[in-house]
Amino acid sequence: MRWLRLARHSLLRRLHAEFGDRAHFVAVHTARGHRLLPREDVEPALRRFASSFAHLEFPVALDLSGDLAAAYGTEGSPHWIALCGPPEAAVARSVYGSQDNAQTRLTYWLAEAVGPSPAAGSAAP
């Protein structure tokens, strides 16, 4: 199984559409580097964003303390982390940034790790 922590909604939707049948996606909203807010102040807005704005079709985790992001050594937002497992879910790839280069590296790594989309390999004769 492949577990991915990703942060940009349009890229997330595209990657999920292309690789979602072969990889698991999880977005993590973290407080790392920001002021800490109580769950009741953050969760309703996060749910609205994920369902009504970003239209994410995969889970969104809430890292209220920032401890999860710190444990994976994230450098900012977005920071893309691909975890491979089980059993230990070790970091397979870590990419910081939303620029085209970071997005391209993540897309290429996914294609290499889980294989290209079946539709991509089926060109008409």
Question: How would you sum up this structure, described in words?
Answer:
The chain has 125 residues and is of the alpha/beta class. The chain has one domain (2-114): Glutaredoxin (3-Layer(aba) Sandwich). 37% of the residues lie in helices and 23% in strands. A five-stranded mixed β-sheet has the order 3-2-1-4-5. The chain is globular, with a radius of gyration of 15 Å. Its EC number is 1.11.1.24. This is Peroxiredoxin family protein. GO terms for molecular function: thioredoxin-dependent peroxiredoxin activity. It is an enzyme of class 1 (oxidoreductase).
Descriptive key words:
125 residues, alpha/beta, Glutaredoxin, five-stranded mixed beta sheet, 23% strand, globular, disordered N terminus, EC 1.11.1.24, Thioredoxin-like_sf, Peroxiredoxin family protein, thioredoxin-dependent peroxiredoxin activity, oxidoreductase
